[in-house]
Batch of 2 targets.
Target 1
Amino acid sequence: MNAAVSPATVALFEEALRHQWGQGASISLYGSSNRTPMTFVLERVAARLDRPLVAFWAAGGAPDVFCLRDDEAVAAVFNQRHLELSAQLLQLFTVPLEGELLSELAERLCLRVTGEFALRDGDSDLAVLCYVKGRVGESIVVPDNRNVLDLELGPINERYMFLWFFAFVHEFGHGRAASAENRRAMEDLLPDEAISSALRDGLDGENLLPEHREAAEQVLATSQLFSPANLREECSADLFGCEVLLQSTMDILRELSADVVDPVAFAVEHVIFLNIMMLIERCRMISEMASPRSTAAAPDAVIRLAVHHVAIQFRGRVAQWYLQAALANLYPKLGETRLAEAISEAQSRLSHRASMIQQGYRAALRYALGAKAKAGDHPLLDSFRTDMAAPIASATRNETRAFCQTARAMGVKGSLLDVLEGILERPDRPFSLPLSGAHRFIVAWVNGPDGFSEPYTLLTPHGPVAPAFLPQNPLFADLCEALRASLYEGYELKRVVFVVPRPEALGEVMLEHCSADAGFGLVWEGQPGFVDFLTDQLEVAKRDSQA
Amino acid sequence: MTEKLEAVTLQLDASLGPEVRLAFADAGIEARFLERNNIGGDAATLIVMATLSVQALPHLLKFLGDRAERAGVRRAKIFELEFENPTEADLELIRQIARERMTGKAPERP
């Protein structure tokens, strides 16, 4: 496979791949010296291309799948992480769950995939929030199997072939899709007007608000992504993928077990994997839209995702049309109508499941798009800390560690990533979130007789000290609860919020609200040692109130 | 004296393909052009990889400068600095480094 390509071209592809991937991925040339299902498939890819191919294997890094091509050769990357995530998402279509439980699982998995794409873009806070939201309070755990050998042990059948090779072969299909001859054939098959009309019809199923519908039609008319030419090329690569996978599956089953392809299973697996591919891609789009750098408004994101859904559905229909014709031709005894009915019946069984998965995906979308405003979601992270402290959480701990390691290998830095690593290391200890954005602090405030008005202070060797918390830190509620019991009669404890331009200004602002002669030191959340100090003081306060 | 060569990588909308090929050919810059397609059907992008002398850089910067406001240039890596959607200010920084290289002054990295 690689032999016909000059070493200089292979080196060029490799350099381009490394540039595209950035840090964190290990990329290597996939050799053909051993006979594997992969080389088996690649032989059939090579036989259908007009130029040599180069196959690379990528491990680690982002779950991107793409191809590169020039006049001499076409290169595609088998992305191990994409395979692992696809295997996880496949569970959505196979686990014996339904209804809300299935939606919840879909939401969690979509959030975690979105988190991985956010890592790729360097949006570490978004990545951590999506990842943690996808894990906190998890009752059904779908393992994130980062051991590709386990996936290799599955039986080689229609599902195995789609799981491993659908995306990979599709990418090589771009090598054929770009040829002038193929372009002409696809233009005859799918003229511009037929595509545009099908996409407009597809929008009817998206239940968009009238104003969004108009904007969606505008996106269809102006975006290169959804242009007839672009969709034709994708459809062509899809058809290539189906053709090669069907041939490869038939041949490999014959060679390994003298078995034959189940045509209904093959057509259904195609639908499942098109859905998986769409979910992964939509998670990528969500991470881009939810990025702090994104300027797109939420309705724009919804419109774009709706149009993307319509485009993928269109691709799916074209590929299914081809597959049903090809399968009917290969299995004439089944009869075209009977085969079509059997496939349609199997697909309708999937459709309810698919709509529950969509519901979960939409919940993930809502969280991710709102994550920008949450900055530090302390309650979420604290719930996760509690989860991590449980002995049963060892699998989640390992997977979270892998998430953090992936982030670091990509060169990602960020305060919430530091917090997540801190939680992993010491889940028994409360944590403090770093300061960011507007400085809002909550303070326990005491009012009493004769106009008494002061922050509650803790007695320390350095004198009385008032603690100021970031909003939502659960330590604040713990502290108030412990303090209330120790108040003298006639005094009351209140929660007061101060908004200051910088933390150093807090003391001055607080003094303006104090009765005369008030004097105290101040510690605020975000300063080093704040949590340790408060945890110790809380213990003392609890002991005092019990005494 | 051996001429110092710089590796340059650009990523552009594929629709700019004919223009960038022409611009590079006119400037006598040899480059390899790779088209990238994603699994999700994003519009294709063009990756341009070239090794060129500092003296040839102005041609490249002119091409980029003409298109900086059109958002067709997605990434540019020059002098080991990487820019996403490079702006005129980014290009000015590259020009400054190029001038320093040509005049033999030690470049000041940001």
Target 2
Amino acid sequence: MRLTAITAAATLIAGMAVAETVAPDDVQYGEYGEVEASLTGMPGDPANGKVIITSRSKGNCVACHTAEAWSDAAFHGEVGPMLDGVGGYRSEAELRGIVANAKMTFEGSVMPAFYKTSGFIRPGDAYTGKAAPADLPPILSAQEIEDVVAFLMTLQDG
Amino acid sequence: MKFKALTAVVALCAATTAYAGGADDDVLAIDGEEMISKTDAPAHLAETGIDTIISGWHFREDDTQAMQLDTFDNPGMIFVDQAMDSWNTVEGEAGESCASCHGDVAEFEGLSTKMPKVDEDGKLVVMEDLINECRTERMQANEWKWSGGTMQAMVALINHQSLGMPMDVAIDGAAAPFWEQGKEMYYTRYGQLELSCANCHEQNYGNYIRADHLSQGQTNGFPTYRLKQAKLISKHNRFRGCIRDTRAETFAEGSDEFRALELYVASRGNGLSVEAPAVRQ
């Protein structure tokens, strides 16, 4: 019910709030790596968030994390912690910070930064092995980050 | 309260998963000869916390493992046989074959345990370099392509002469600067995913990353026969694939960077038996 309402609202404002999108280099991280403000000013779409989490070509979070909520996806990795209940013990701001750049929360983490475009060593053009284009896009767009965060917030029981 | 309970549950699950992964306790004997597939880590790994080095064989599925136990069942041996033919084939302006200079390929027993090494000119060379040097200088024949079938079959044939012998590459003296360069590469977090070799093969070996069971990334089984590709895979091809998977610009096969990395990675396996050609999924 509530989810449907949010999605409807999102659809309504889509297109109006484009100018508010925060660029990767401009994201404001708090002392513990949290990011208070939405990167787009628009609510995330949790259904799309789940698709991103389980798609190899998108977040591919499942490569490292398991969770009951995506038990339908094949092959769960075990490099990162299990995420059941993470929306209960982490705030939305913390989750946004972790997904955008986990290294701001966990120093030296193996978890990649999904909303970062600079400061890499030999960045490539996705998985081609070739050099990255000058305007390297982040792995996930601002709205995709919001979608993933919205889905993680639904993981209340663990 | 609730947080504590959650943490306990998480810890419990983590423990179970850890048991699911890890290296297995099976014994690797090829044609009845037991390999050193697990042994004490070389001294230079002391700072890493790795005390046992483990062959990639221990991380594979049973059916893949089984193919390596008998050289007749090993699909990689077809290429070793093919290389035996090239060994005896005269090619090039000089009218020589490998055999006309070296005689029996068994003369090369032990060579691969010392590779890569620094040559008289102070250059770090790997097996492919030695082979191509013979091709171009002594046979006056054309160079073989690095990851090409003919080249990797010959590397497999020569490495196979050392089957069971422990890897023993030199890392001091003239090799030291190359080893340092390779070590630095091993710990560099390349690409948009910012992952180093160590992130996967030192910190996470035994864990699954999606469907892949991470090993220590040892090179004692190379060239390896990959069932998926139905051919022999060179070390540099594997390095290239691993770096590409970090969304990075890779280095070229046969580059000096990969020679240095090859030396360093080989040294992490000093003490493990040569298994070439090993079988991988």
